[in-house]
């Protein structure tokens, strides 16, 4: 299965933030939207980085509550691992496991076209598993 299949089901909207925003604003948006990471873009929509709840927690643990006034630019990860629509879910799972991150932005020709989270991957693996089980049961029942 490829990334495009998941995006077709979950949609292509990605919640973004900008480098000059504060970590407090990030925390607010993550909580409001019930998500774990924001893609950091510039005015033209180019991906500059990613900032996740882990970055906020790490900053607060190190610096205390004052870290919430820091800019996103200071705490985001700039080397973002991205996927293409044609990337496989298995490949994505390997990248997430090896890199120990749970979010992968999807880009096409430098444009952000979606985001896949570990939750999306698990959901679709479970569906695949259930379909396999059903196919096996149907096969046994009719054999
Ligand atoms: P997460 O597991 O997504 O909350 O992220 C854990 C750490 O990895 C944080 O420092 C994120 O900024 C970073 N991170 C998240 N997604 C990616 C990604 N696709 N590429 C590189 N780093 C990432």
Concise overview:
Helices cover 49% and strands 18% of the residues.
Notes on the protein architecture:
With 143 residues, this protein is an alpha+beta fold. The chain has one domain: CBS-domain (Roll), CATH 3.10.580. Helix content is 49%, strand content 18%. It has six helices and five strands, in the order H-E-H-E-E-H-H-H-E-E-H. The chain has helices at 3-10, 23-33, 53-63, 72-75, 89-99, 118-142; strands spanning 16-17, 37-41, 47-52, 103-108, 111-117. The chain has a three-stranded mixed β-sheet. A two-stranded antiparallel ribbon has the order 4-5. The longest helix is centred in the last third of the chain and has 25 residues, at 118-142. The mean pLDDT is 95. Bound molecules: adenosine monophosphate.
Helices and strands in order:
Layout: H1 3-10, E1 16-17, H2 23-33, E2 37-41, E3 47-52, H3 53-63, H4 72-75, H5 89-99, E4 103-108, E5 111-117, H6 118-142
Parallel strand pairs: 1-2
Antiparallel strand pairs: 2-3, 4-5
The protein binds adenosine monophosphate.
